[in-house]
Specification:
Elements lengths: L3 H13 L14 H31 L3 H7 L1 H15 L6 H30 L4 H32 L5 H15 L1
Helix pairs in contact: 2-3, 2-5, 3-5, 4-5, 4-7, 5-6, 5-7, 6-7
Amino acid sequence: GLGLRGVAKRIEDAMARLPLRPEEGYRIAGQKEEMDASSRSLILALVLSIFLVYLVMASQFESLLHPLLIMATIPLAFVGVMAVLLLFSIPFSILVFIGVIMLAGIVVNNAIVWVDYTNQLRERNLGLEEAVERSGIVRMRPILITTFTTLFGLLPLALGLGAGAELQQPMAVTVMAGLA
């Protein structure tokens, strides 16, 4: 009932209790090393993608503040992810991490749609509050349509329907939880 990380932790705990001489040592190799390398690569990919997206948005919006506002939506999605992972006892795996990266892209895209239209309305001399409100009214429908389409598209994977779906189930649940 344990994943690779849980088994490796138990082995490390047991090995730490053994009385070893100074010339003796141990290391857990094989799949554990591969998992650690994959985790480091995914963390680097996430950090690099967030940085590059920030740079592209900063140049597009010609502002350093608007991309930060858009990036502030990413942690809000993680609230749902963490709640669902804890609720259903889903371990944080490579597939969950890939789902987090996908989720970050979807959430940023939705925020870009809203902020970009708000900026267009501001250029038409609307006040900030009125521009945000009108942008929300006009852009919320496409954002919700995209969100619901993604949710319903991932539903068969999240339910584990079809051959091999159980392998990608944690990724689907992660994206759905963050969007919801």
